[in-house]
Amino acid sequence: MMMRATTVATLLVLALHAPREAAANKKAIKVQGFVKMCTLSKKLKTVQAYATNKLTHWRAKITALNELHEDLTILAKKSARLPDDPTITVIRLLKHEAKVLEQKYHNLAEAAPLAATVAGQAAGAMDEAASIFYAATKHGSGGKYCLEQDNAATKLAAATEISGCITEDSAPVTAAADAAAAEPRTTDITTKWAEATVAAAAGQGNNCLLTQADNNGGYLDSNEVSDGIKWAGGLLKFTTSQLSGRPWVDTSTELAAIPVLNSAKQQLEGLAARWRHTTSTIDNLLKLKEPTEQTFTDIDSNENVLNPGGTDKDLKVTKEQLEQIRKKVNNYREPLSAAGKLESSRNSFHLQDLTTNTTVTIEKVNAECNKDTQGKQSYKTKEEECNKAKDDKAECDKLEKQGCIFNNDGKKGEKCTLSDKAKDAAKEAEKQPGNDGKTNTNTTGSNSFVIDKTPLLFAFLLF
């Protein structure tokens, strides 16, 4: 009798348990969420490629700018005539733009590796999830699958739609290190997910062990892991409440719930300013290296751009003047390039500069300016120098070589005056070209100085 009661009890338990297994959550997931995820993964894997491509192009431009600056400097130094203002402005602009772009280059080169690593980590988490779910689908039989085609209650037949993540063999798709790519943006991450993708994720299939939520062999044991399991770094999450909830996280509103993807967004925000640089001025200047006639645009700049803290002076180079400068550069480069001697010519010029006493420094320029202006002061300036001795005869006598004499009959406080002979000599000197006693301030700022009207002006501007 007891055995019969036990048998009945056992059968009752089995009967009660059978419906529970049949109703177990084993829902397949519609592929549309994976499609969106893999589109994002593919974009994140281009961060390094885009940065590398940008750095490569910038390095080429920096080199070209420096070579143009070098060749125009050589041409100007070898010329017996002082370069015109447009040429001097272009030489200075070439150096300025090269320095600015060089700094941008280093800033991007410093930040890109970490950004690419974080973005790649986020993409890797997505690829891994896609790989597992697709493998469980491709190799399932008898209606067992985890990824379901959109608008059809059948399993996903190929990995084509999720090729941003994996290959047909479920292998992760790697990023091409040197491929040109469109700029990865934070909006690639934060674009709002369609409500149908986020909410209506459950498919018709009901035989996926990866989503199974019970205590009978599924990943989600209803007695132990009721909080659920996160996939793709937290982008996909489902619990024992089945897929009828919202398994996909909407990155436009809940990004903080996906730490690795949130970090990738922050890295892209930091890169945005680093890899964007307006190069219209540079592109205009680089036309100077072309061998044929170019369509230039006028250059409008300012002295305080090239020399921070300098005067507020407009600098303009017309497109016609730029074309003339291009011709000069081409006429210099063409025969040397044809003979394969352009680089050796540059090296020879630098060697000559280093081994001869022709290197121009600010100190040398100042010394030459002072030497060149001695004896060229105006009559009034010389008179003022004498008057400084006032009524002190001893002090006045010390200035005798400068033409000063002591006049007892002079005004009180001004008895030391310039002799008539010295006055005549000073007035005669003022009549000579360049001896008007006036000076010309070429520039201002930390490296500024006052220089007489001599060809040393161009030497200062070039170095």
UniProtKB/TrEMBL annotation:
Residue ranges occupied by any Trypanosome variant surface glycoprotein A-type N-terminal domain in the UniProt entry: 10-314
Alphabetical GO biological process terms: symbiont-mediated evasion of host immune response
Region (Disordered): 419-446
Membrane topology: Lipid-anchor; GPI-anchor
InterPro entries noted in UniProt: Trypano_VSG_A_N_dom, VSG_C_dom_sf
Domain of life: Eukaryota
Biased composition range(s): Low complexity: 434-446
Keyword Signal (UniProt): yes
Pfam families with a match to the protein in the record: Trypan_glycop
UniProt KW keywords: Cell membrane, Glycoprotein, GPI-anchor, Lipoprotein, Membrane, Signal
Signal peptide stretch: 1-24
UniProt biased composition (Basic and acidic residues): 419-433
Subcellular localization, as worded in the UniProt entry: Cell membrane
Any coiled-coil regions, as ranges: none
Keyword Oxidoreductase carried by entry: no
GO CC field: plasma membrane; side of membrane
Described function: VSG forms a coat on the surface of the parasite. The trypanosome evades the immune response of the host by expressing a series of antigenically distinct VSGs from an estimated 1000 VSG genes.
Name of the molecule in the record: Variant surface glycoprotein 1125.54
